[in-house]
């Protein structure tokens, strides 16, 4: 063991506390079913790599790399060493052979991203570094390494490019609509990919409470003494189940422009996965291997994705999802339920009182 408690073999470094390692783990082990089915389908497409290599000439990847190299701080043994150690640990645990370059960018907004077509790079902002403690930050670094292992950086880069393109072609009739349709679809996928990466962060940090604290801080700032994990999760429960059909529509409208799910929802989803049999099997060493990825069935992945969405709809407490479930089960009075659900969108005059000016019960 080294002086700082880290076992070293040549240039290899291992975690500074006992954590499980997952040799040869496939990203399929932690990917959300909707994320996984999209990735498997894309990887199976003939000529997919050729198309993206051709597209890479249009994307500002080289410009981004030069920008971060020239105007950010590259993490290394000499700069932000604690982040460098976390990065090595995360790659060691998830068995990612090539360690991605990592940069710290001056920005008070807490954020992190993994971008790049040929090779992923990880960027974290100073706002995030200053906000999180070591174990919380470890989960974030694991989150970004999970993106790299899954190949998400390619699609994230395309999303950034298309978002920029949408602003430039906004004046072209119908042109912006086509680009925005693609962006909307990519954002829906990317929100699911964030749930996948949260799981990767948990596999790296192996500390659920730290992952929860990090999400709370992203939502409410560095005031942990004023916050409570259980109360934070209750917010997610209230968000999912509260309100009526009006609120269901507003939730959809609120989430459409976002690339990330809401923090409370991410926390609830991660806790549910941490308590699942799937997570326990991974921790016990039973997980899909990378050398089996080529044998993955697209149809099986789509079936898993469809089953996941169906389960989400069936177990959801959201009023709109409950209505869909009831209709699927043959429940009647659709018109009445929809009218009651949307009554709040319009203001109606109060009912007139009877002859005695006393409201009558029906």
Which whole number gives the mean pLDDT?
75
Helix content: 55-70%
The helix/strand series, from N terminus to C terminus, equals: EEHHHEHEEEHHHHHHHHHHHH
> How are the strands of the biggest sheet laid out side by side?
3-4-6-5
Low-confidence stretches: 1-13, 337-342, 353-362
How much strand? Answer: 5-15%
Radius of gyration: 24 Å
Major sheet details: 4 strands, mixed
How far apart are the first and last residues' alpha carbons, in Å? 80 Å
Give the class from helix and strand content and strand pairing: mainly alpha
The tally of beta strands, per DSSP, is 6
Tally of alpha and pi helices: 16
Name the shape in a single word.
globular
Briefly summarize what is shown.
By secondary structure, this protein is mainly α. It has 16 helices and 6 strands. A 4-stranded mixed sheet has the order 3-4-6-5, with helices on both faces.
How does the SSE layout of this entry go?
Blueprint: E1 8-9, E2 12-13, H1 33-44, H2 48-56, H3 61-71, E3 73-74, H4 81-93, E4 102-105, E5 112-115, E6 121-125, H5 126-131, H6 134-150, H7 152-168, H8 175-205, H9 208-220, H10 229-241, H11 245-255, H12 263-274, H13 277-283, H14 298-315, H15 319-328, H16 334-342
Give a description of the structure:
With 362 residues, this protein is mainly alpha-helical. Helix content is 58%, strand content 5%. It has helices spanning 33-44, 48-56, 61-71, 81-93, 126-131, 134-150, 152-168, 175-205, 208-220, 229-241, 245-255, 263-274, 277-283, 298-315, 319-328, 334-342; strands at 8-9, 12-13, 73-74, 102-105, 112-115, 121-125. It has a four-stranded mixed β-sheet with strand order 3-4-6-5, with helices on both faces. A hairpin with a 2-residue loop joins strand 1 (8-9) and strand 2. Helix 1 (33-44) crosses helix 8 (175-205), helix 7 (152-168) runs antiparallel to helix 8 (175-205) and helix 9 (208-220) runs antiparallel to helix 12. It starts with 7 loop residues before the first strand and ends in a 20-residue tail after the last helix. The model is unreliable at 1-13, 337-342 and 353-362 (pLDDT under 50).
């Amino acid at each position: 063991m080294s002086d700082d408690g880290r076992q070293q073999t040549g240039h290899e470094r291992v975690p500074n506390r006992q954590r499980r390692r997952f040799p040869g783990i496939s990203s399929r082990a932690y990917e959300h079913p909707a994320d996984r089915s999209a990735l498997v389908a894309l990887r199976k497409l003939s000529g997919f790599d050729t198309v993206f290599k051709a597209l890479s000439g249009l994307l500002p990847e080289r410009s981004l790399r030069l920008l971060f190299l020239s105007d950010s701080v590259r993490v290394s043994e000499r700069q932000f060493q604690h982040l460098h150690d976390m990065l090595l640990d995360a790659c060691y645990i998830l068995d990612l052979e090539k360690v991605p370059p990592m940069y710290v960018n001056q920005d008070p907004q807490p954020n992190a991203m993994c971008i790049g077509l040929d090779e992923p790079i990880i960027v974290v902002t100073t706002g995030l570094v200053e906000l999180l403690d070591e174990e919380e930050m470890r989960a974030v670094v694991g989150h970004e390494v999970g993106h790299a292992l899954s190949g998400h950086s390619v699609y994230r880069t395309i999303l950034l490019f298309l978002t920029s393109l949408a602003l430039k072609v906004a004046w072209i009739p119908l042109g912006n609509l086509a680009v925005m349709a693609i962006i909307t679809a990519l954002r829906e996928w990317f929100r699911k990919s964030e749930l996948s990466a949260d799981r990767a962060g948990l596999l790296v940090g192996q500390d659920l409470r730290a992952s929860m604290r990090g999400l709370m801080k992203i939502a409410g700032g560095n005031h942990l003494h004023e916050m409570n994990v259980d109360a934070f999760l209750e917010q997610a429960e209230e968000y999912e189940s509260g309100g009526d059909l009006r609120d269901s529509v507003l939730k959809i409208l609120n989430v459409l422009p976002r690339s990330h799910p809401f923090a409370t929802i991410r926390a609830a989803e991660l806790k549910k996965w941490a308590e699942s049999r799937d997570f326990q099997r991974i921790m016990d060493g039973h997980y899909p291997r990378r050398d089996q990825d080529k044998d993955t069935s697209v149809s099986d992945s789509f079936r898993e994705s469809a089953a996941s969405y169906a389960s989400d709809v069936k177990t959801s407490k959201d009023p709109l999802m409950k209505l869909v479930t009831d209709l699927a089960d043959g429940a009647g009075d659709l018109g009445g339920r929809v009218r009651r659900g949307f009554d709040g969108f319009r203001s109606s005059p109060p009912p007139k009182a009877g002859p005695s000016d006393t409201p009558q019960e029906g």
